[in-house]
Specification:
The complex is a heterodimer of chains A (75) and B (353). Chain A is an alpha+beta fold and 75 residues long. Chain A has one domain: 2-Layer Sandwich (Translation Initiation Factor IF3), CATH 3.30.110.40. In chain A, 29% of the residues lie in helices and 33% in strands. In chain A, strands 1-2-4-3 form a four-stranded mixed β-sheet, covered by helices on one side. In chain A, helix 1 packs parallel to helix 2. Chain A is globular. The two termini of chain A are 13 Å apart. Chain B has 353 residues and is α/β, with parallel strands linked by helices. Chain B folds into two domains: 206 residues, Rossmann fold (3-Layer(aba) Sandwich); 103 residues, no CATH class. In chain B, helix 1 links the parallel strand 1 and strand 2. In chain B, helix 4 packs across helix 5. At the A-B interface, helix 1 and helix 2 of A face helix 2 and strand 3 of B. The structure holds iron/sulfur cluster (SF4).
Chain lengths: 75, 353
Amino acid sequence: MSTYQLDATGLLCPLPVIRTQDRVATLRQGDVLSVHCTDPGALLDIPAWCRIHGHELLSTQENEEEVLICIRVRK
Amino acid sequence: MKAVAHIPRTRRAVALISGGLDSMLAARVMQDQGLHVEGLNFFTGFCVEGHTHAIRNNPNRKPRRNNALWVAEQLGMPLHIVDVIEEYKSVLLRPRHGYGANLNPCLDCKTFMVGKALEWMQAHDFDFIITGEVLGQRPMSQRRDTFPVVARESGANDRLLRPLCAQLQPPTLPEREGWVDREQLYGFSGRTRKPQIALARQLGIEDYAQPAGGCCFLTDVAYSRKLRDLWQSRAKRDYDLDDIMLLKVGRHLRPKPHLKVIVARDAGETRYLRGYRKRFTYLDMTSHNGPLTLVEGERDDADVELAARIAARFGQGREAKSVSFQFVSRDGIERELQVAPFTVDEVLEDWYL
Ligand code: SF4
């Protein structure tokens, strides 16, 4: 089980979801992915994508500039 | 030796999901027939879906949901979003069947998407493709004579099923093989939305998106005009993702054939346009509250002054005698600039793209 980072800053939705989806496809059960975004829309979309595909949303954090979403891969 | 009972495999359909009601209904109708359905959504860069609208400041509204994801969640099916930005260029730049009312190459676009769905179907061991198309609903790609074109040119042939109007079409493979019950499909046609709305009600679907005009910006007159202008000004039909995203943001004005000015419309757009500062010359208003302005194609000080006078018109100093800017050229050279804002009549109507 490892932790990975994904930089999706500067991308507008749905690109952060697409990048997350493509990255998760390469990870293993139990791995954690931290996704950094600047589009606040990712706060809706990435959790929705996780619910649909059964991945676990560990946390979301938001400040003025950035959104950080942590997910645990479930396969 | 015991005979092993043959359990028929659950048939698998891949659904093109736009996020609107029709594709939602098509997928649901298949699910109700006991099929396993997964959704595919293609991101061309021109999609109305996504959060481009979230760039605009609206303190009262939360960011909008992505309707394709929302539909998938409502239906309890996986959704795969596919980035086709690069591949889509050849569809838009060289459509074999031309454009619709604006720069929308709907027939080529549908063929491309069904073709991509076919590749996905084959790679993932699915049986057929469904779309939410309704005969006669859209003038280019959803006609009796163009439906077969999409099926043929995409290579999907009779593995392409349109559940909402299937009864008006010859039976497809899934119907002939009995994977789906044709009797339980529909015969919707025309531009009216009433049958879809009635079916949604019957299926207990109350919340759905109704995108006006089409699924992408290419059906939009103003957007198409800006895209044509981009090609004309570069004497080349090409684009990258930044180009096409930028066309969705700000007021675009072309006061001279070589000079383009993009003025943010609110603080949200200003924030977004700041991300483009390395690619453009820009003007940041310093004496008053005002939008960030990007400038493209300036050749001399007169061009810069013209852009600044336009920009000044859209800030809080529009009635002031003089408005100051920080001017930063593309190579990072900074200077202060003071100009008199244009009056409303001096910003000519035909400068607007
Ligand atoms: S409206 Fe846009 S996305 Fe929809 S078929 Fe036409 S070109 Fe393709």
